[in-house]
Amino acid sequence: MDLKEKLLASFMAFENEVDIDNPVHDIRSEAIKNFEVKGFPHKKMEAWKYTSLAPIQKVDFSIFPKEENTIEYKDVKKYFLHEIDTYKIVFIDGIYSSYLSETTHDGVDICLMSSAISKPMYKPIIDVYFNKAARGEDSLTSLNTAFTREGAYIYIPKNKAPRKPVEILHFSTGNEASLLLQPRNLIIAEENAELQVLERHQSLTSNEVLTNSVTEIFAAKNAIVDYYKVQNDRKTATLIDNTYIDQKHGSNVSVHTFSFGGKLSRNNLNFYQDGERIESTLKGVTILGEKQHVDHHTLVHHQKPNCESHQDYKGIFGEKSTGVFNGKIIVDKIAQKTNAFQQNNNLLISDKATVNTKPQLEIFADDVRCSHGCTIGQLDEDALFYLQSRGIPKKEAAALLMYAFANNVLESVRIPEVKARINKLIAQKLGVHLGFDL
Question: Of 44, 102, 306, 432, which residue is least crowded by CB atoms under 10 Å?
């Protein structure tokens, strides 16, 4: 039995286990039918031309953990943003950990997806928002929707902001030889609301784990959402991350993706601008080695006039690693006065590393400012020689140049503690101690 057949068979057992009368039952049923028809994406599809999921389909993943596991905070403290106080929504092998979490209903709802889809008090919100930003054509999003049970539910009412940032952490403990996780996050910022979120998936052993994650973010009029994804997992971890953002008039949403680890990471980031004076920011830093593979797939759909989007992705690839960037900007005919920028720059520090990059523009308006570009190159030998001539060893000189190459992405990080943490991770990946923070 391959993975698709196992998932279809497991859905029947899942349906018997959950409440079939809850608000998302019909949505689940339609989603599994879509996945059954489409199956896993493959390399014959243009959007998956450079990324193969064939190897993971041969693994006998456990669909549901057999038993709950506990972990001590001291053993995982380094994965938390412990330098500042935060709300925390923590999952261990897909199961909520109340011990490690700190949620709240004090003016805002920072809690669990399982509560939101099962309790009548949340039904009006679920009916309006759940599965509305996620587009049905993606089979892996449909798979996640079919098995929706747990994840983060964040609702920020009009004119509100949490007292502190929110962390969403998913730990896999290795209780199973191989485990499939499918977290579902629903994040809603109503008019004039503000929110900062940090998300991380982390394996604690070398056992194989596949995470198929879906996040829907809704930013109402003049809302501000600041989202950070830290991907620095073990070499046996595969992450497929689908994030959908629906923006209304005057909203500002930024997503920073830091991809430093894992065997395979696929980031599908989709922005839908439905209003004027909207700003969307998509930035990322990727540093890979060995045979690691990262695929960034972005979409910004400008549907109304007078909006902006800014994309800037930097990649550093060593050994036999592979990077993929496919960024698309769509500007509808009505979306005049759009200002859209897209840039993907890459450094190859190994002759065996590979980068495939494809920036795309589809413009149907005639009064716009849109630009895109990509570069693939190596370190500047003249700059490297200059630093060495000033007494800096070659390894440190190369690291400084790579650090400078990636640093402008960090300039827009708004949480100082996150910026400091990413600075340290970059230094570790480059194998040097820089001796300063930017």
Answer: 44
- Cα 76 to chain centroid, rounded: 21
The answer to whether residue 37 sits within a structural domain is: yes
310: enclosing H helix or E strand: strand 308-317
Question: Is there a single domain that holds both residue 393 and residue 270?
Answer: no
Residue 438: what pLDDT? Answer: 40
Residue 353 lies in a domain: no
Which structural domain range is residue 403 located in? 387-438
pTM of the predicted model as reported, rounded to 2 decimal places = 0.96
406 phi/psi in degrees, rounded to 5: -90, -10
Tens-place pLDDT, residues 403-432: 888 888 899 999 999 999 998 898 888 877
For residues 81 and 165, the answer to whether their CB atoms sit within 8 Å is yes
Summarised one tens digit per residue, pLDDT across range 311-367 is 999 999 999 999 999 999 999 999 999 999 999 999 999 999 999 999 999 999 999
| The domain boundary residue, chosen from 235, 257, 274 | 274
Q: How far is CA 363 from CA 285, 332, 335, 359, in A?
A: 27, 7, 9, 13
Whether the per-residue pLDDT at 20 is higher than 80: the answer is no
The residues near 28 (Cβ < 8 Å, ≥ 6 apart) are: 15, 145, 146, 147, 148
In the chain, count of helices (H) and strands (E)?
9, 20
pLDDT tens digits, one per residue of 37-46: 999 999 999 9
Residue 146 included in any domain: yes
Rounded CA Rg of the chain: 21
The domain tally of the chain equals 2
* 58, 161 Cβ separation under 8 angstroms: no
Last residue of a domain, one of 274, 305, 330: 274
For residue 434, what pLDDT is reported?
58
Q: Is residue 304 part of a domain?
A: no
Average pLDDT, the chain: 94
**Residue 291 in tokens:** 């045979």
Residues 6+ apart with CB under 8 A from 83: 417, 420, 421
Q: Which amino acid is at 313?
A: Y
- Cα–Cα distance for residue pair 279/273, rounded to 1 Å: 9
User: Mind giving me the DSSP string for 337-391?
Assistant: T-EEEEEEEEEE-STT-EEEEEEEEEE--SS-EEEEEEEEE---HHHHHHHHHTT
